[in-house]
Design goal:
This protein is α/β, with parallel strands linked by helices and 404 residues long. Helices cover 45% and strands 10% of the residues. It has a 5-stranded parallel beta sheet with strand order 1-2-5-6-7, sandwiched between helices. Strands 8-9-10 form a 3-stranded parallel beta sheet. The protein has a two-stranded parallel sheet with strand order 3-4. The N terminus is likely disordered.
């Protein structure tokens, strides 16, 4: 079945559809220069979103050593120069409005703590910018944590404080369904028309505690309301641009990116092919359309429907996005709002086998660095994208909380 895919079947190309025939991709990945390797190894690299906790929760793997599956393990992270991957404390939307959502979040935090306990010479929990900086100097990989889906808060500011104390430093307000905090970009029901009354209270309290507000996944209205309420910059921990994926509300449009820039925030580019490429979006939409048509004609339990996925992928090879297309997203943010507002939020271990050519796992950040060098970015600007911009926002959030 391929790697674990945490997104709902209807929202993402599941790994099972990506085993078999693929579209040929002509992009040649340029060799990585000594300069690119040096930048990757000598710079703090913050990735805004990596789904290791949910991956090992579903099927245990010791990521302190080389693993056959997944996109992250310690050897590959060291090879790629990855320094501070935000561990995603992802709670499925199916658990919304249940005590189980809170329990699962704590279990996933336990798993991150266990990674550090088992390998303290390799990993360390990071709860502050100072932790990340100090641990980088020691050669450790920092593991800050962000909660994907605010459902585990369960309407309780006490729960929010507990999660802060355990190390949660951003919260993605919603995921694939609207919850008690905010409407989701994926959910046709817009019960709150943005943020709920509690969601508005929550954003303010996140500011006060020092938890970054993450607007990835939320509806456009929820984004604008969060920006309006927040007294500090917000982030999009793993989002890309709607310019290149028309109609895909999960990504941000140009007006939203501009508003994010005015707010001082950062959009961290998601690497998943369906986030990056219109061709991949069209492939997914066509698959869904044709399958639904067949279900209507033949019945959901028919042999034809059972055989559809395999037949479709053989006749229509999956069109992976490319490293160049990911760089296009970075370029466009820079064109719109400048170099100070873009970062990387790969979604490694969260998007199945849909990753672009040249960016298949955490060993490949030097390819991204080389691509930026080839496009004329200076080392100073590359360092901002790799970590400087996110660390700036995190520092501003810390300073505001310290004063409140």
């Amino acid at each position: 079945m391929g790697r674990l895919t945490k997104k709902p079947l209807s929202l993402l190309i599941p790994a099972l559809l990506l085993t078999g025939s693929y579209a040929a991709n002509a992009e040649t990945i340029p060799p990585v220069s000594a300069e690119a390797e040096a930048i990757a190894q000598e710079t703090i690299i913050v990735d805004g979103h990596i789904d290791v906790p949910y991956r090992v929760h579903a099927k245990w793997e010791d990521v302190s050593v080389a693993t056959e599956g997944g996109d992250f393990d310690y050897p590959r992270a060291k090879k790629g120069g990855l320094t501070a991957p935000f561990m995603s404390i992802y709670v499925p939307a199916s658990l919304d409005n249940s005590d189980e959502s809170t329990a699962v979040a704590h279990q996933l935090i336990d798993l991150v703590e266990a990674m550090v306990y088992r390998s303290p010479e390799k990993f360390a929990i990071a709860k502050s910018v100072a932790d990340v900086t100090a641990q980088f100097k020691k050669g450790l990989i920092s593991l800050p944590m962000g909660m994907e889906n605010g459902s585990p808060v369960q309407g309780s500011l006490e729960n929010l404080k507990t999660f802060y104390e355990r190390g949660i430093r951003y919260i993605t307000l919603a995921h694939s369904l609207s919850n008690h905090i905010a409407d989701s970009s994926y959910d046709l029901r817009r019960q709150w028309h943005g943020l709920s009354p509690f969601g508005k209270e929550l954003v303010a309290e996140m500011n006060n505690l020092g938890i970054m507000v993450d607007i990835s996944h939320v509806s456009d209205d929820a984004f604008y309301q969060a920006i309006e309420i927040s007294k500090v910059p917000v982030i999009a921990s793993h989002s890309s641009l709607r310019k290149y994926t028309p109609g895909f509300e999960r990504n941000m449009n140009d007006d939203m990116v501009k508003k994010l820039g005015e707010n001082g925030g950062v959009i961290m580019i998601n690497f998943g092919s369906s986030f990056v490429s219109k061709e991949t979006q069209d492939w997914r939409n066509n698959l869904t359309k044709q399958k639904n048509k067949l279900i209507k004609e033949m019945g959901e339990d028919s042999a034809e429907v059972a055989a559809f996925d395999e037949k479709y992928r053989k006749e229509n090879p999956y069109p992976y996005s490319t490293l160049s297309q990911v760089l296009d997203h970075i370029d466009h943010v820079v064109e719109l709002i400048g170099i100070d507002h873009v970062g990387i939020g790969s979604d490694f271990d969260g998007v199945g086998d849909s990753l672009p050519t040249g960016l298949k796992d955490v060993s490949t950040y030097p390819n991204l660095v080389q691509g930026m060098l080839d496009r004329g970015y200076s080392r100073k600007d590359i360092e901002k994208v790799l970590s400087g911009n996110l660390l700036r926002v995190w520092s501003e959030v810390e300073k505001y909380a310290a004063a409140h």
